[in-house]
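S1.2 Input.
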Amino acid sequence: MDIFARSAANQSLAFWISPCFRYRCFFSASASWDLPHGHITSKQSATRHRSQWLEKIPEAGTRRRAEQLYQQLDLLQHLRQQARRELLAEGRKHAITAQLRKIPSLGPIRCALAVALIQTPHRFRSKRQLWTYSGLGLETRDSGEYHFVKGQPRRRKKQATIRGLNKDYNHDLKGLFKGAATRASVKPGPFQEFYQRSLAKGIKPTMVRLTLARKIAAITLTLWKKGEDFDLHKLNSQAA
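S1.3 Output.
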């Protein structure tokens, strides 16, 4: 439901910044468009300012389209809040939700979604299986582990080439852990300290956030399986 609400909001915003609409307003004597491109504010979506923005539209058909987009946004915003309340209520029925909330950057929404998407941690024997299921596993390519030297098979010294992340995965779960990693990188706490230390070593920000996402996934699986609380001192031991 949150995806549909964001989609409606983006459609409404795209309407105001569309080149076609700006072209019509620029060449219309009855319209006064005084906002430069790229400076559309949240006032367009606020109810108290809608009439002012709708009056800027000279054509009746175009204005009616904007009104319908606003109606769609209002309906979806209401449904979004209702779905959010029901999701949180369902999440509170599971004891593990409160335990997962102790992990920094995992709020009530993400914890409830993690419980719904993973269902049981025993589906995964190791963190690497969870990484692969979440789209955080590394894919490698190797043309041959052994080669023949003077008629004898020998193992190649060259390591397998990393080709990126695995392509077949649960998109919702990947978005959950990526969002948690992004929040952890900007929110003061142990994860942000790890993020800053990694940047100081010259590691690219995208790679550090990937490592954070893998760490959060591994910690989630460990706490859920063992029933332990989040331990800051074990953070570095969660290899990613």
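S1.4 Remarks. Residues 19-41 have pLDDT under 50 and may be disordered.
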